[in-house]
Design a protein that fits this description.
six-stranded parallel beta sheet, about 20% strand, 11 helices, alpha/beta, elongated, 13 strands, four-stranded antiparallel beta sheet, disordered N terminus, about 325 residues
Amino acid sequence: MGFIESSDTLRLSSNKLLIELCGQLDINLSKIESWAGVQIVRRGNALSIYGAKSDCDITRKLISDLYSDLERGKTLDERELEIYFQQFEDQKVRRIKNKKIIDEGVNNKENYLEIKTQKKLVLAKSSNQNHFIDSMLTKELVFGIGPAGTGKTYLAIAVGVSLFSQGLVEKIVLTRPAVEAGERLGFLPGDMKEKVDPYMQPLYDALNDFLPSKVVSKMYERGSIEIAPLAFMRGRTLKDSFIVLDEGQNASPSQMKMFLTRLGIGSRMVVTGDITQIDLPKGFKSGLVEASEILSKMKEIDFIKFDDVDIVRHSLVRKIAIAYEKNAIQSKSSEK
């Protein structure tokens, strides 16, 4: 291999490959620095890496892999670099968690993860919530399924806001099916935003819990936050984004497939829903139910199942959820 590694420095034997690795005006090095949280100093044919040991280890491995591929004749452009970052993302997330970056990362108090946003700290209140947060930080696609009040959407948006604040994603995309609207949208007053905003209001409420309203408004104007009905996702590829589909049980199978295939490089996707509250017309299968049947055995995807123990709203909500669950079980038994 064409380099000699020391504790903090990589010495590259080919100036031509070094230039290609670094990119024009060292743009590739800057991106690697930003991604890994390190400082890279270029002196001649040597790259010195400064930062925490775990950060430096990941950076050295990344640069070594890049250089080895260049030696084998591969090219390095922006898209290829993003692919390398994605391949190393799981290692990076473990580094982030170890450094406790969601307080400057993630704090671990009594074994529960805590998310820091601009307005508040959000602490997991149950084992399933803890698992949900951990999955969102380590997997590209996570499903959170369970009854109302278990914090599925709330935690998903909190993680998205935290990752955005750290510069780990460039955009937050929040969507949900506007099932109640159906074909009646055209009869509602106002422009399209005014027509669909009532269905998106729970997402706005969660955002305003974590960010000052002025910050939310500016991010919305810049396009850093996007809130739109599920139908608006068709034909798009969402990269470098944290994407949340809320009320996933009300997506049709074709809508769910369309949504899941929007996942782009550098993005993470979370689907939340309650399969006991499906508002689709009778006889229509829920896309969330179908997705759980088709994708549940894929190791790259996590399915977190919440139950009444995880409900964190008013204590009466838990009793209501339990009562409805018992009634559903009794109804199924009587049908048999």
